[in-house]
Amino acid sequence: MKHLLSTADLSRSEAVTILDTAAQMAATQERAVKKLPTLRGRTVVNLFFEDSTRTRISFETAAKRLSADVINFSAKGSSVSKGESLKDTALTLKAMGADAVIIRHQASGAPHTLAHAGWLDAPVINAGDGTHQHPTQALLDAYTMRRHLKGEVRGAADSKGVIGRDLSGLSVVLVGDVLHSRVARANVALLHTLGAQVTLVAPPTLLPVGVDVWPCAVSYDLDAVLREHQPDALMMLRVQRERMSSAGGGFFPSPLEYSRLYGLDQRRLDMLPGHAIVMHPGPMNRGLEISAQAADSPRSVIVEQVANGVAVRMAVLYLLLAGTSGTEGA
């Protein structure tokens, strides 16, 4: 595995290797001394052109737990704000001896360009690019599902058996602003690779052109999907109002109408199977896509997703910089 740019690039064996390695990393974090010497002497750069709290801190924590030196690079406080190009920034990082670059960028495809333009010799990890991909978020989501649902035995009628190292047979429903969601795109690709059955639920105005060829089912009716699919995991996507231009008109009539049709409230929470978990990539719009009762319910694993992100990102850094996964070009 040379880079991590998209979940669509991962084979099932590569994805399972990352999840297995994350489990091993998580076990080390239960010790009194959490730090490992694995990446001592390596330099990891967080190159963030977009604001971030959870992802940047998670990557920084992961690198430091592996004993790497971390440089946090924010576009707002750098020469980028003066007009420096991505190429010149990359050449600067190369000259400084960066061993890995984690990039978040507002332009879809920027991490791919950074990885393949020949400006860097270091592995590139996509921490979110435009509305395109967010692979480590999808990996931590899959890790969270596997951790909670691995031993789940489905009913005899559907004969799905026990969830194994991948997520074969799992039913996962993603609800909300799919149009602007790199998390949705990353999750659909990864969950399909891992064998899960994925359903997207959204109003027609919040579904992208071409969604009909994605490896998932699509519905506009959340209540019908909850009744028919009885999902093992329900992920509520953030309504990304900052990406919605008022000049182009509204994507839904009103927040109240959206919440009524697509929000997770107590009534819909009660429709889920007893073992089902509730997820959200954060940050949450409480009262819009998810109610406070649902966000804070015992079914919710939202806070755990954040914690699991450190173990997953430790695994990715380890496999890229120190491990040998036996794969190429992921």
Question: Explain this structure to me?
Answer:
This protein has 330 residues and is an alpha/beta fold. It has two domains: 7-133 and 306-321, Aspartate/ornithine carbamoyltransferase (Rossmann fold, 3-Layer(aba) Sandwich), CATH 3.40.50; 135-302, 3-Layer(aba) Sandwich (Rossmann fold). It is 35% helix and 13% strand. The chain has helices at 12-28, 54-65, 86-95, 110-116, 135-149, 182-193, 222-229, 255-262, 266-269, 292-295, 302-321, and strands at residues 43-48, 69-74, 100-105, 124-129, 171-175, 197-201, 217-219, 233-236, 277-279. The protein has a five-stranded parallel beta sheet, with helices on both faces. A four-stranded parallel beta sheet has the order 2-1-3-4, with helices on both faces. Strand 3, helix 4 (110-116) and strand 4 (124-129) form a beta-alpha-beta unit. It is globular, with a radius of gyration of 20 Å. Mean pLDDT is 89; it is low at 155-161 and 324-330.
